[in-house]
Specification:
- 28% of the residues lie in helices and 0% in strands.
- The protein is mainly α and 50 residues long.
Length: 50
């Protein structure tokens, strides 16, 4: 981000590294890894579109 002056940094609250919204507790977060039914974080999709 710092090297590309026309880029924008987008921080999405509650999104984990598998791009899904995850609860703060470890067990709930780990459950997102194996559940293909969970959608991508809505903030991710709207952020890419903008």
């Amino acid at each position: 981000h710092e090297e590309k002056s026309d880029s924008e940094l987008l921080i999405i609250e509650k999104m984990n590294h598998v791009l899904k919204e995850a609860p703060a507790d470890r067990a709930g977060n780990l459950a997102t890894y194996t559940n293909p039914e969970l959608p991508l974080s809505s903030g991710l999709v709207s952020g890419i579109i903008e």
